[in-house]
Amino acid sequence: MKARMVDLEQMLHHVMKLEAETGKQAWILYVMDLTGLQYNKKLYDLVTGSMKSLADFMADHYVEMIKVGLVKTAEYIEIPPFKSVKNFETVTVSCGQAHVVTKELKCGARLKWWVRGNRNFGFGVFWSETKNVEDFFVAKQVSPCFPWMPGPTLVPMEEEVIIKHDAFYHIWVSNERSWWRSLEVQLHVEVSD
């Protein structure tokens, strides 16, 4: 998802630039290479897991610029390797619950996080003027929120931001969609001045 977000932001930049130059609505033709596609259980997992999450994310944030087409050729890109973190905390989140780490931070501080989970989960980083937040979807987002992502996550989500407001910052890990199973996440949150 993180690698796709970079691509999507670059596409959005090009679309907005083209729209500014022409004065007309522009879009991206999103091409998928289906060469070697096999109809098996992995296809079901792909369509109901990572592809569904990507499609939901695109529909929420980039709906006006994406049209989808399927062809038999495509270019491949190389994704850079991720960094491993050794001093993470393992957190168990019960079914139907969420785990929130809240930090009071001042403007100019750095907030860094690293997270991966053993099953499907939601994740977001928000800020608010009050310490207690009942609904994180009305709080202000620090980075894009993923209400649901397929797991297990082999590549961790990691990011670092410079704080722009004196406020309370909330790292939200959700297992609220699960009815039966607990979620185990490896989480590292770091604050520096």
Describe the structure.
- InterPro entries: CRAL-TRIO_dom_sf, CRAL-TRIO_domain, Ctg-1-like_C.
- This protein has 193 residues and is an alpha+beta fold.
- The chain has three helices and eleven strands; from the N terminus they run H-E-H-H-E-E-E-E-E-E-E-E-E-E.
- It has helices at 2-22, 41-48, 50-61, and strands at residues 28-33, 66-71, 89-93, 98-105, 110-117, 121-128, 140-141, 146-149, 157-162, 167-174, 183-192.
- Strands 4, 6, 7, 8 and 10 form a five-stranded antiparallel sheet that branches. The chain has a four-stranded antiparallel sheet with strand order 3-11-5-9, with no helix packed on it.
Key terms:
193 residues, alpha+beta, five-stranded antiparallel β-sheet, four-stranded antiparallel β-sheet, 3 helices, 11 strands, globular, CRAL-TRIO_dom_sf, CRAL-TRIO_domain, Ctg-1-like_C
